[in-house]
Protein backbone atom coordinates (compact mmCIF):
# COMPACT_ATOMS: atom_id res chain seq x y z
CA UNK A 1 0.00 0.00 0.00
CA UNK A 2 1.33 3.43 -0.96
CA UNK A 3 0.59 6.24 1.49
CA UNK A 4 1.05 9.95 0.75
CA UNK A 5 3.80 12.06 2.28
CA UNK A 6 1.96 14.41 4.68
CA UNK A 7 4.85 16.90 4.74
CA UNK A 8 4.82 17.34 0.95
CA UNK A 9 1.12 18.16 0.92
CA UNK A 10 1.44 20.46 3.94
CA UNK A 11 4.10 22.73 2.39
CA UNK A 12 1.54 25.22 0.96
CA UNK A 13 -0.17 25.29 4.37
CA UNK A 14 3.17 26.07 6.05
CA UNK A 15 3.57 29.08 3.77
CA UNK A 16 0.04 30.32 4.42
CA UNK A 17 0.43 29.99 8.19
CA UNK A 18 3.75 31.87 8.18
CA UNK A 19 2.08 34.65 6.17
CA UNK A 20 -0.82 34.68 8.66
CA UNK A 21 1.61 34.89 11.58
CA UNK A 22 3.43 37.80 9.96
CA UNK A 23 0.08 39.54 9.46
CA UNK A 24 -0.76 38.90 13.11
CA UNK A 25 2.60 40.35 14.15
CA UNK A 26 1.96 43.53 12.17
CA UNK A 27 -1.58 43.95 13.56
CA UNK A 28 -1.39 42.56 17.10
CA UNK A 29 2.28 42.18 17.99
CA UNK A 30 3.45 39.46 20.38
CA UNK A 31 5.45 37.59 17.71
CA UNK A 32 9.09 38.36 16.91
CA UNK A 33 10.62 37.89 13.46
CA UNK A 34 14.18 38.63 12.40
CA UNK A 35 14.17 38.26 8.65
CA UNK A 36 17.77 37.03 8.35
CA UNK A 37 16.97 34.46 11.03
CA UNK A 38 13.79 33.39 9.24
CA UNK A 39 15.73 33.10 5.96
CA UNK A 40 18.27 30.86 7.71
CA UNK A 41 15.45 28.67 9.00
CA UNK A 42 13.94 28.41 5.53
CA UNK A 43 17.36 27.49 4.12
CA UNK A 44 17.70 24.77 6.74
CA UNK A 45 14.25 23.48 5.82
CA UNK A 46 14.99 23.28 2.11
CA UNK A 47 18.44 21.84 2.80
CA UNK A 48 16.94 19.07 4.91
CA UNK A 49 15.06 17.80 1.86
CA UNK A 50 18.31 16.47 0.39
CA UNK A 51 19.25 14.11 3.26
CA UNK A 52 15.52 13.43 3.52
CA UNK A 53 15.83 11.55 0.23
CA UNK A 54 17.99 9.06 2.13
CA UNK A 55 14.94 8.26 4.22
CA UNK A 56 13.17 7.15 1.10
CA UNK A 57 16.01 4.91 -0.09
CA UNK A 58 18.53 3.60 2.46
CA UNK A 59 16.26 3.96 5.48
CA UNK A 60 13.40 2.31 3.68
CA UNK A 61 15.67 -0.65 2.97
CA UNK A 62 16.77 -0.81 6.62
CA UNK A 63 13.21 -0.74 7.93
CA UNK A 64 12.14 -3.35 5.41
CA UNK A 65 15.01 -5.61 6.45
CA UNK A 66 14.00 -5.39 10.12
CA UNK A 67 10.38 -5.94 9.14
CA UNK A 68 11.45 -9.31 7.78
CA UNK A 69 11.89 -10.41 11.43
CA UNK A 70 8.57 -8.91 12.56
CA UNK A 71 6.90 -10.44 15.61
CA UNK A 72 3.42 -9.76 14.28
CA UNK A 73 1.81 -9.29 10.87
CA UNK A 74 0.28 -5.82 11.14
CA UNK A 75 -1.26 -4.62 7.94
CA UNK A 76 -3.27 -1.52 7.09
CA UNK A 77 -6.44 -2.24 9.04
CA UNK A 78 -8.11 0.79 10.63
CA UNK A 79 -6.81 -0.10 14.07
CA UNK A 80 -3.23 -0.18 12.74
CA UNK A 81 -3.48 3.57 12.04
CA UNK A 82 -4.65 4.14 15.63
CA UNK A 83 -1.95 1.89 17.08
CA UNK A 84 0.87 3.45 15.06
CA UNK A 85 -0.26 6.92 16.17
CA UNK A 86 0.50 6.08 19.80
CA UNK A 87 3.50 3.83 19.08
CA UNK A 88 5.26 6.33 16.81
CA UNK A 89 4.62 9.17 19.24
CA UNK A 90 6.17 7.10 22.03
CA UNK A 91 9.24 6.49 19.85
CA UNK A 92 9.42 10.20 19.01
CA UNK A 93 9.43 11.13 22.70
CA UNK A 94 12.47 8.92 23.36
CA UNK A 95 14.27 10.02 20.20
CA UNK A 96 13.75 13.64 21.26
CA UNK A 97 14.78 13.07 24.85
CA UNK A 98 17.90 11.12 23.89
CA UNK A 99 18.79 13.87 21.40
CA UNK A 100 19.03 16.28 24.32
CA UNK A 101 20.82 13.91 26.67
CA UNK A 102 23.63 12.58 24.42
CA UNK A 103 25.95 14.89 22.55
CA UNK A 104 26.31 12.91 19.33
CA UNK A 105 22.55 13.12 18.77
CA UNK A 106 22.42 16.67 20.11
CA UNK A 107 24.87 17.60 17.34
CA UNK A 108 22.20 16.59 14.81
CA UNK A 109 19.38 18.28 16.72
CA UNK A 110 20.94 21.49 18.02
CA UNK A 111 20.31 23.41 14.82
CA UNK A 112 16.57 23.26 15.50
CA UNK A 113 17.15 25.14 18.76
CA UNK A 114 19.69 27.63 17.44
CA UNK A 115 17.24 30.43 16.61
CA UNK A 116 16.81 33.08 19.29
CA UNK A 117 13.30 33.73 17.99
CA UNK A 118 10.24 31.55 18.29
CA UNK A 119 7.91 31.66 15.33
CA UNK A 120 6.59 29.34 12.65
CA UNK A 121 9.69 29.71 10.51
CA UNK A 122 11.68 28.16 13.38
CA UNK A 123 9.78 24.91 12.82
CA UNK A 124 11.45 24.62 9.41
CA UNK A 125 14.97 24.71 10.92
CA UNK A 126 15.40 20.98 10.44
CA UNK A 127 18.47 18.78 10.77
CA UNK A 128 20.79 17.96 7.90
CA UNK A 129 22.66 15.23 9.78
CA UNK A 130 20.04 13.22 11.65
CA UNK A 131 20.19 10.35 9.20
CA UNK A 132 23.99 10.11 9.51
CA UNK A 133 23.78 10.29 13.31
CA UNK A 134 21.42 7.27 13.22
CA UNK A 135 18.66 9.01 15.17
CA UNK A 136 16.19 6.91 13.17
CA UNK A 137 17.15 3.85 15.23
CA UNK A 138 14.46 4.86 17.75
CA UNK A 139 11.76 3.94 15.24
CA UNK A 140 13.14 0.55 14.18
CA UNK A 141 11.27 -1.32 16.97
CA UNK A 142 8.05 -0.41 15.15
CA UNK A 143 9.24 -2.50 12.19
CA UNK A 144 10.14 -5.36 14.51
CA UNK A 145 6.64 -5.22 15.99
CA UNK A 146 5.24 -5.60 12.49
CA UNK A 147 4.08 -2.14 11.41
CA UNK A 148 4.56 -1.71 7.64
CA UNK A 149 7.33 0.69 6.68
CA UNK A 150 4.96 2.88 4.65
CA UNK A 151 2.71 3.26 7.69
CA UNK A 152 5.61 4.18 9.99
CA UNK A 153 6.91 6.83 7.59
CA UNK A 154 3.39 8.17 7.07
CA UNK A 155 2.88 8.64 10.80
CA UNK A 156 6.32 10.24 11.18
CA UNK A 157 5.18 12.76 8.58
CA UNK A 158 1.90 13.36 10.41
CA UNK A 159 3.87 14.09 13.59
CA UNK A 160 6.17 16.54 11.78
CA UNK A 161 3.20 18.38 10.28
CA UNK A 162 1.46 18.58 13.67
CA UNK A 163 4.55 20.06 15.30
CA UNK A 164 4.73 22.94 12.83
CA UNK A 165 1.90 24.99 14.33
CA UNK A 166 3.16 24.79 17.93
CA UNK A 167 6.17 26.98 17.09
CA UNK A 168 4.45 30.28 17.79
CA UNK A 169 3.93 32.91 20.45
CA UNK A 170 0.68 34.06 18.85
CA UNK A 171 -1.25 31.28 20.64
CA UNK A 172 -1.01 31.56 24.42
CA UNK A 173 -3.15 28.89 26.11
CA UNK A 174 -5.68 26.41 24.75
CA UNK A 175 -8.53 24.74 26.70
CA UNK A 176 -7.30 22.90 29.79
CA UNK A 177 -8.29 19.46 28.49
CA UNK A 178 -6.31 20.04 25.29
CA UNK A 179 -3.25 21.28 27.18
CA UNK A 180 -3.43 18.16 29.39
CA UNK A 181 -3.33 15.72 26.46
CA UNK A 182 -1.61 17.35 23.50
CA UNK A 183 1.59 19.22 22.82
CA UNK A 184 0.77 22.90 22.45
CA UNK A 185 2.56 26.19 21.75
CA UNK A 186 2.77 26.79 25.49
CA UNK A 187 4.40 23.42 26.18
CA UNK A 188 6.78 23.70 23.24
CA UNK A 189 7.86 27.24 24.11
CA UNK A 190 9.17 25.74 27.33
CA UNK A 191 11.05 23.11 25.35
CA UNK A 192 12.82 25.78 23.28
CA UNK A 193 13.64 27.99 26.26
CA UNK A 194 17.11 28.33 27.76
CA UNK A 195 15.95 29.49 31.19
CA UNK A 196 17.42 27.06 33.76
CA UNK A 197 13.90 26.36 34.98
CA UNK A 198 12.88 25.13 31.55
CA UNK A 199 15.94 23.20 30.36
CA UNK A 200 15.41 19.64 29.08
CA UNK A 201 11.63 19.53 29.38
CA UNK A 202 8.57 18.79 27.26
CA UNK A 203 9.97 16.40 24.64
CA UNK A 204 6.54 15.52 23.28
CA UNK A 205 5.72 15.15 19.62
CA UNK A 206 1.93 15.15 19.57
CA UNK A 207 0.95 13.86 23.03
CA UNK A 208 2.24 15.65 26.12
CA UNK A 209 1.17 12.67 28.25
CA UNK A 210 4.60 11.04 27.78
CA UNK A 211 6.26 13.95 29.57
CA UNK A 212 3.81 13.59 32.43
CA UNK A 213 4.45 9.84 32.59
CA UNK A 214 8.26 10.08 32.48
CA UNK A 215 8.74 13.13 34.67
CA UNK A 216 9.94 15.62 32.06
CA UNK A 217 6.95 17.98 32.03
CA UNK A 218 7.42 21.61 33.04
CA UNK A 219 4.52 24.08 32.65
CA UNK A 220 5.05 27.53 31.18
CA UNK A 221 5.20 30.18 33.90
CA UNK A 222 3.86 33.56 32.81
CA UNK A 223 6.03 35.15 35.49
CA UNK A 224 9.16 33.86 33.72
CA UNK A 225 9.08 34.52 29.97
CA UNK A 226 10.94 32.06 27.80
CA UNK A 227 14.35 33.02 26.43
CA UNK A 228 15.06 31.15 23.21
CA UNK A 229 18.15 29.76 21.56
CA UNK A 230 20.86 27.54 22.98
CA UNK A 231 22.84 27.99 26.19
CA UNK A 232 25.79 29.38 24.21
CA UNK A 233 24.31 31.05 21.14
CA UNK A 234 26.36 30.87 17.95
CA UNK A 235 25.39 34.28 16.58
CA UNK A 236 25.22 33.46 12.87
CA UNK A 237 22.68 33.15 10.08
CA UNK A 238 24.97 30.96 7.95
CA UNK A 239 23.14 27.63 7.35
CA UNK A 240 26.40 25.70 7.03
CA UNK A 241 27.60 26.86 10.44
CA UNK A 242 24.16 26.24 11.95
CA UNK A 243 24.11 22.71 10.56
CA UNK A 244 27.66 21.64 11.38
CA UNK A 245 29.05 23.81 14.20
CA UNK A 246 28.47 21.20 16.92
CA UNK A 247 30.04 18.45 14.83
CA UNK A 248 33.12 20.67 14.43
CA UNK A 249 33.16 21.22 18.20
CA UNK A 250 32.95 17.47 18.81
CA UNK A 251 35.89 16.90 16.47
CA UNK A 252 37.92 19.54 18.32
CA UNK A 253 37.10 18.04 21.72
CA UNK A 254 37.94 14.53 20.52
CA UNK A 255 41.36 15.76 19.38
CA UNK A 256 41.96 17.28 22.81
CA UNK A 257 40.71 14.27 24.78
CA UNK A 258 43.38 12.63 26.95
CA UNK A 259 41.66 9.31 27.68
CA UNK A 260 39.26 6.82 26.19
CA UNK A 261 36.71 7.83 28.80
CA UNK A 262 37.09 11.41 27.64
CA UNK A 263 36.53 10.41 24.03
CA UNK A 264 33.46 8.31 24.86
CA UNK A 265 31.94 11.04 27.03
CA UNK A 266 32.63 13.60 24.32
CA UNK A 267 30.49 11.54 21.96
CA UNK A 268 27.87 10.02 24.23
CA UNK A 269 27.91 12.11 27.38
CA UNK A 270 25.51 15.00 27.99
CA UNK A 271 25.99 18.21 25.98
CA UNK A 272 28.23 20.61 27.88
CA UNK A 273 30.38 17.90 29.47
CA UNK A 274 34.12 18.54 29.33
CA UNK A 275 36.96 16.28 30.33
CA UNK A 276 38.71 19.08 32.24
CA UNK A 277 35.62 19.66 34.37
CA UNK A 278 35.14 23.21 33.08
CA UNK A 279 31.95 22.50 31.16
CA UNK A 280 28.35 22.96 32.23
CA UNK A 281 25.66 20.41 31.44
CA UNK A 282 21.96 21.14 31.77
CA UNK A 283 22.00 19.30 35.09
CA UNK A 284 24.83 21.55 36.30
CA UNK A 285 23.01 24.71 35.22
CA UNK A 286 19.77 23.62 36.92
CA UNK A 287 21.62 22.58 40.08
CA UNK A 288 23.27 26.02 40.33
CA UNK A 289 19.94 27.73 39.67
CA UNK A 290 18.23 25.74 42.42
CA UNK A 291 21.02 26.45 44.89
CA UNK A 292 20.75 30.20 44.23
CA UNK A 293 16.99 30.07 44.72
CA UNK A 294 17.40 28.16 47.98
CA UNK A 295 20.07 30.53 49.33
CA UNK A 296 18.71 32.95 51.99
CA UNK A 297 18.36 36.53 50.86
CA UNK A 298 20.95 38.89 52.35
TrEMBL record:
Keywords: Lipid metabolism, Membrane, Oxidoreductase, Transmembrane, Transmembrane helix. It holds the Pfam family FA_hydroxylase. Its main location: membrane. GO terms for biological process: lipid biosynthetic process; membrane lipid metabolic process. It is a multi-pass membrane protein. The keyword Glycoprotein does not apply. Residues 81-216 form the Fatty acid hydroxylase domain. GO terms for molecular function: glyceryl-ether monooxygenase activity; iron ion binding. The chain crosses the membrane at residues 6-24, 45-63, 75-95. It is found in: Endomembrane system. GO terms for cellular component: endomembrane system; membrane. This is C-5 sterol desaturase. The lineage of its organism: Bacteria, Pseudomonadati, Pseudomonadota, Alphaproteobacteria, Rhodospirillales.
